[in-house]
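== Sequence, structure tokens ==
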Amino acid sequence: MSHTDLKSYLLGKWNLSFRGSQIAGKIEADFHAECEGKTYYQFNEDQTGSDKFYIYSDGSCEEQPSSDFSWDLRDNILVRNESISEEDFVAVAEYEVYPIDENEMEWRIQILSDDEEEEQLFMMKWRRAE
């Protein structure tokens, strides 16, 4: 998918439908079905965005503080930038984007473990909000 096509594809609101990690070849889910449709990312045409996360805890989905960000693309990499001052932004996350179809995508991010011996693959699946 070209840069322009991927940018157009991302625009709009996406709801989290799965989050998990792969450690030593095994996928472990970190997502509760009761929270589906609540956590979202909103991508705007001017490459700004907002998000809202919900974490399942003590039998319910707990709302987390929302945040605003700017974003950019490098090939199939989504770069999330957050402001550290009015004029300065810093990249805080880079996700590999895998469009599945028109209304579903997957993000992946590799993170080294604390001892830097083992990489962990984190995955998130998103569905376009209706």
User: Anything to note?
Assistant: The first strand starts at residue 12 and ends at 23. Residues 41 and 122 are 17 Å apart (CA to CA). The chain has a mean pLDDT of 88. The two ends are 23 Å apart (CA to CA).
